[in-house]
Each structure stands twice: as structure tokens, then as C-alpha cells.
Amino acid sequence: MSLGYQIVSIEKPTEDDYAVIFNGVNNFAISQGLNATTGSYFFAIYDHEQNMLGAISGFDNFGPIEIGGLWVSEHLRGHGYGLALFEKAQSWAYSKKSSMMTVFTLKEWPVCAWYQKLGFTIEFERQNHAKGSVGCYLIKYLR
Hints:
- The protein is α+β, with helices and mostly antiparallel strands.
- The protein has helices at 15-31, 81-95, 110-117, and strands at 40-46, 52-60, 65-72, 100-106, 121-126, 135-141.
- The chain is built from 3 helices and 6 strands.
- It has a 6-stranded mixed β-sheet with strand order 1-2-3-4-6-5, with helices on one face.
- It is globular, with a radius of gyration of 18 Å.
């Protein structure tokens, strides 16, 4: 197959690069009679020198609020920072009037059990992730 345009790798995409995808998907959704997504969130923890020590990010996935990533520096784990970040994301989900939150993680990782303590349930498991691990898709209903 011969393509008329070249495909290139962008190692450090900018916000403008991501906006092209975001706007394209939203415009298609609108053309199909769906509400466009209502954006994304990013909450972070910084120390006094402005080093990021933890963050959570995600997006509105046409209704469900997706947690795209959650990370807390190892020395702060177990001190409530992960919960505080999650609560910020959950508040954002409520402000968007979402009825659910979703997240993907590996079943073997401690965070999988942690999400379940927060009210998430495993909705789907997929075998054969890296090194034979199991991927878990979790969901939490908010209403």
C-alpha cells in the first residue's frame, strides 16, 4: 500500500499535538450526536523545590472518568498522598456529573488491591501482559 503522507514518530509531543487528537475525536463524537468529552485532569504534589512527588491524571471518556495514571514517590507511599490525589480526581468526576470511574492496572501490583479498597471492582481481566501478568480493568460506580 502506498500512502501519500509520511508517518513520523514524535518523541516529545506537545499539548498542541495532543489537542489535534482530542479535537478530532470530539468533533467526530459531535457529528454522531454524542456529547464531546469534557476535558482532562492533572493533579500533582510538589516539594519546596518544585520537584513533583506524585500525580494523578486522566480524562472524560465520554461519560466514565478514566484514571490514566497515578504515581506517588516511594518515600511518600502509605502516608495518604495517593488517597488525596484520588479524591481530587473523584471530585472532578463528580463535578462532571459522571456516574463511574475506570482504571487499568496489573493485577499483581499492590495498587490493584488498593483501588478495590476504594470501592472499585474488577470488571474485566486480560491475560498475557508483560512477563505473564494479568491486566485488570476496574470500575467504580459513583451514583
